[in-house]
Design brief:
Layout (H helix, E strand, L loop, with lengths): L1 H24 L3 H12 L6 H31 L5 H15 L6 H8 L1
Amino acid sequence: MSKERSIQAFRLLLKAIDRNITHHNADTQWRRFVIEEFRKNAILSERNKLDNLIDTAQDYSFLIDSIREHKELLESYNIGIDIKDREKDMQQRAAAHVGLQIPERYKDKDDD
């Protein structure tokens, strides 16, 4: 049971690292570190320590994915942009989402 759980946690953590860290900056440092740590603890026989390490790996993978989702939400809400500009951007995104564009007259009218 613990071996299957540790393999699942290992894969989950590697996927999170590949998706969110390695993919963006092509740095394999974290991937190598995780592989090294799992290999180092592969012979661990103490059930409590093993369960703690598995839980930590699952927590880290959840944290990495949550940080990415949080950044995406902040970008989608355009935090840090003036409210009027944010509303324009949201309208343009909504129109683009359904394959339309906001007419130029409407854009010019709002700029005044």
